């Protein structure tokens, strides 16, 4: 007896439909956190000095050349490697939850290599804005929040592409990954997007003003979040492999063949 096609397809669907690149990044961050918990204090400090983003590294009036390990190479790689270090299991857990939610659709749309490049660029953008606003600071910055914020912004560019002004429905994001993304000016006229962006900036402003959220220990580098988000929003078309519609109708359902 043959199963109905719809039921058979439902049974073949995995419980967690997560792109391999997201799984790999999550596993790497968890492994790094496990290693940092396992090593002694001195080794932990060395790891931070080599891979965390430290603004003072770029200010010779604060730190003489050669004080921090890695030299010129570390000056470059710490713009990205800091994103794989976290301040504890709560910190890494929160970032992974947000990455699963927003990184997953972006990774499905971009593919592995484009997504990894997008992740690196938004992480570097967050570090860059943090450097501008924390010049000469010795406190290391760690965490994937800037890159995750970039994924949030990237998802906003297409998450409503095929729904027009309709209400949210299950599976919306999964279907939207295949639809051309509207221009930024069109996206920013959508009230849902405006509401999301407004709430996101209010939360980060509250963090900047010192609101006690009680989620992680230590200060939150909210400027890095803003840097990653803005670059994710603006640079999205440079990574997007899905071409726009020639007729400019970004909100219609594609014809089935």
- Count of alpha/pi helices: 11
| Low-confidence regions | 1-15, 164-168, 251-257
Cα end-to-end separation: 29 Å
Radius of gyration: 20 Å
Arithmetic mean pLDDT? 83
SS class? mainly alpha
| Total beta strands | 0
Helix percentage range: 55-70%
The largest pleated sheet is described as:
none
Strand content: under 5%
Outline type? globular
Helix-strand string: HHHHHHHHHHH
Q: Your description of this structure?
A:
There is one protein chain. The protein is built from 11 helices and no strands. With 257 residues, it is an all-alpha fold. Helix 6 runs antiparallel to helix 11.
Q: What labels would you give this structure?
A:
single chain; 257 residues; mainly alpha; 58% helix; disordered N terminus; disordered C terminus
